[in-house]
Amino acid sequence: MVKRLENKLNADIGFAWWNKYVAAAFWSNLSLPLNLTITLLTALTTAQTATENLLPRKSYVALSIVALVISVLNTFFRPHTQMMENIKVMSKWTEFGNKFESIYYSDSDRSRLKEYQALQNEINMYENSQSPESRNFLTDLIHIVVRASCLKKRDKWLDTTTLDNLNI
Fold first, then answer.
1. What is the pTM of this model?
2. In angstroms, rounded to a whole number, what is the distance separating the alpha carbons of residues 10 and 97?
3. Helices (H) and strands (E) in the chain — how many of each?
4. Contact by Cβ (8 Å): 19, 143
């Protein structure tokens, strides 16, 4: 019973942490270029407005439209906000992982089952408190691709097979 719960917690915590890590990385890599592009395009269009001879009229209009479209996309998808929310949730899963490790490495086999059950209850309560809006199917799909191509079997919180072989 203890080993089964231990394996489940290890897999659940690892899965959730990697899911949020991949999502945060995705939004981070989207946020910086979008915001930098908006800043540069706004600076160019502002300079054109002030000088009236920096850019040809067609280029100025095109840049203004591109700045508008990118700003709308940035406002709609809110990549920086998405990144920060995923980092916050990832930090919560890191706390769960740290609790899991302290139980896993504890000397007391007697209390281990109770501590694992308490951790499982805490995780269930946390997951129940999450709103459906916190799910993002695009980043979930990216996470599935990353798991299949990069993580493979390294998606658990602890690699217990290596630890068991080392007798740790």
1. 0.84
2. 8
3. 6, 0
4. yes
